[in-house]
Amino acid sequence: MRAVIIIYMSFVVTQVCAQNKQLLYNVDDLPQTLLSNPGASIAFEKHIGIPFLSGFSVSAGSSGVSTYDIFQEGGDINTRIRDAIFRLDNKDSFVVNQQLELVSFGWKSKFTENYYSAGLYQETDVIAYFPKDIAILAYEGNANFIDVPFQFSDISVAAEVISVYHFGVNKEISKKLRVGGRAKLYMSIVNINSTDNEGVFITRSTPNGPNFLQHQVQGANVTANTSGLRSFVDDNAGAGKAVGRAILSNNLGVGFDIGATYTIDDHWTATGSIIDVGAIFHTKDLKNYRLSGSYETDGIELQFPDVLNGEDLTDYWQNLQDEFEENLPYEDSLQASYTTWRPTKFNASINRGFGTNLNGDCDCTNSGVDRYATNVGAQLYAIKRPRGFQGAATLYVDRTWNRFLRTKMTYTYDAFSNRNIGLLLSTKINKFNVYLAADNILDYTNLAKAQSASVQFGFQLIFDPE
Amino acid sequence: MKYFLRYVSVVTLITSVLLYTSCVDDVDFDQTQDIVLSPTVDASLIFFTIDTSDFESVDTQDAIITVRDTTRLEFLNDDFIRENLIEVTLDFQVDNTFGQSLVNRAAFINNAGEEQLVVFFDIISSPDGSVQRTEFTQVLSEEDIQAISNANQLANEVILTTNGASINGELSLQSKAIYKLEFSDL
Questions:
Q1: A146 to chain B: nearest residue by CA?
Q2: Which domains are assigned to chain B?
Q3: Which domain of life is it from (chain B) (predicted)?
């Protein structure tokens, strides 16, 4: 339990609008830009990722408080936890996202201007909203919250481990417009989903009732769906099972990405993309849990069946349990199919390039599109989560210093942080590219105080146009 | 090979910068040992109403009449409760119109039928048939809590002492328990 608290609080500390890859977006000489915008403008004609190393990203965190807020030295940790519980609300979330590219490659068609890219990546995505009412009930109890409803809807958790086969096409429609699309086949390895819960628990004062208090559960509908978990928990399936599912899972899904880049004039471009429009259909290796119904009790009403020195023992307790179970049945052996929607992401940007035109005065390799050494711009990002959209806005300066080094510096503002500075370093020597990106670098001197952090890096071969 | 070494150098440099500049300071994760959850739970206990009809079959010539009923309360001796219960307050409220002298006696009993703790209080009698309210609160001592944590039944008695007058009236009892729990070994 202590380990769970440490892990949770450690994440509560470092929030991220996870999956926002603002440092890689619009970086036209990195193939990873195609994963956030399949219609991105690109400056290479072939790429081959180093297997398992071509792209790795991890981001984790939650909104509201930092590790330091809870675990700072001195003072009373219980007071700080209590303050945090009451300060956070049920829209604050704990988020983890991790991606690992297993295979990645792409090539430009010899016959058209199309660029094809494909690969396989593994992704872990977890979001758990802060269950404020449940936390208060657990931490404080109900004594100070008579007539206050505790909402079961505060329980909202979605976690998945998947692998994704993908194939994308990036196509130039005209000198001004480039579009792209990517088809995706999702393989679910493990999924846990408990969202859209309903109902309340409330302790009512009943001055005109038969007892001081009445305890009510109203309209409970709390469901947890799992797929892929039962074989690991009940059957002790090992890592081999997970690898097998990553390659071919019984729980499949389909989806797509679309994106575009529009060249407004010689200096201005605009982009937009929608990523992961899709769903996964969970039909095998299922286990569902459900608590539903309504129930209320005033306590145990004694009937005094044998008034005079009676010793009869009426089974009130058993009756209470039976009534509870009858009215609030808990089912833990269901195997019902269900569908989960992928967290769809939206990107948009406006970019102005200036300075040296990297394509030269006469660009004959990229359909005449100018490509500047220095770019500044703004990006917008949003991701659809169970309780609505989470968004972020980014300003950036992107500079190609020479053939070997490119940097991008970002300032990102979101609901959780207003001091998120990120930095990308991408170096390319001959065809070998290494990139490393991290955000919230201002907090790297003490990550305990950070409210967001993410790291991305990759190794790959990138072939420039001849 | 020369290029490879240059790549490695660059990556090493960048990684080193991040690793050497990043750290987690001024925090003490050992404080998790100090985390204590201390919820206070208000829970209904027993309630009942007795009236004249409950005494119709009673020999009113007896000096003392006891009305008794028992219920199991399985949670009392639950390990979870036993290990974390630090304070219990019992609240009773009785509305009475009987004119006789009355006592309420609540006995917490173990599985062998042995009384572990008895809580009793006088109920205000009604001289004229009007409703007389009695409120009684008992905060259990540590010893009392230990006693009820060995119990799994509650026997409640209303003891009426006759006074020669007819037994007429109504008595309603309400009760709740306020449990203060403390979970420190998380």
A1: B42
A2: 45-181 (2.60.120)
A3: Bacteria
